[in-house]
């Protein structure tokens, strides 16, 4: 196995461990399926998840790849999780289109925006 493949596998495993510990008990790494690939991570309902742990950024290329994988997986949404150099997996970036983000969070909008903003402010004040 090449060094880049080992790095990618390690990152995918770290993402799975992080998601498992944060409310996604059914996530797992997926086997590669060539042109029928459905993403790197399975078990996040409604999402095709692609992971990237590389030096050079290619957001447009990754978005195209992940959107194709969402079609293959028959899921409405896609995301690319990108390793942030020198940071923990929790600090990784999540890349998705504005349209995907808006559609995904539209159902999660709070009924009481003022209360939601207070909760966010309380979290920020309590952050280390």
**What structural category characterises the helix and strand content?**
alpha+beta
Largest sheet properties: 3 strands, mixed
H/E topology pattern: HEEEHEEHH
Rg, rounded, reads: 16 Å
- Under the CATH scheme, the architecture is 3-Layer(aba) Sandwich
Contiguous uncertain segments of 5+ residues: none
Helix share, percent: 40-55%
| CATH T-level topology | Trna Endonuclease, Chain: A, domain 1
Helix tally equals 4
Task: Provide the β-strand percentage band.
Answer: 5-15%
Strand order of the largest sheet: 3-4-5
Please identify the top-level CATH class: Alpha Beta
Q: Let me know the average pLDDT.
A: 87
Query: How many extended strands?
Result: 5
Principal-axes shape call: globular
How many distinct domains? 1
Distance between the termini: 40 Å
Write a compact overview of the structure shown.
With 128 residues, the chain is an alpha+beta fold. It has helices at 3-21, 59-73, 98-106, 113-126, and strands at 28-29, 41-42, 47-52, 77-82, 93-95. Helix 2 links the parallel strand 3 (47-52) and strand 4 (77-82).
Task: Kindly describe this structure.
The chain has 128 residues and is α+β, with helices and mostly antiparallel strands. It has one domain: Trna Endonuclease, Chain: A, domain 1. The protein has four helices and five strands, in the order αβββαββαα. The strands form two sheets. A three-stranded mixed sheet has the order 3-4-5. A two-stranded antiparallel ribbon has the order 1-2.
């Amino acid at each position: 196995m090449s060094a880049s493949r080992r790095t990618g596998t390690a990152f995918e495993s770290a993402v799975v461990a992080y998601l498992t510990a944060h409310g996604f008990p059914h996530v797992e790494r997926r086997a590669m399926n060539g042109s029928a690939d459905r993403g790197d991570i399975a078990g996040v309902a409604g999402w095709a998840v692609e992971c990237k742990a590389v030096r050079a950024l290619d957001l447009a290329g990754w978005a195209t790849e992940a959107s194709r994988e969402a079609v293959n997986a028959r899921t409405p949404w896609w995301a690319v999780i990108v390793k942030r150099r020198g940071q923990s997996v929790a600090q990784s970036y999540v890349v998705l289109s504005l349209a995907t983000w808006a559609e995904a969070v539209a159902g999660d909008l709070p009924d009481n925006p003022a209360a939601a903003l207070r909760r966010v402010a309380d979290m920020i004040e309590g952050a280390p």
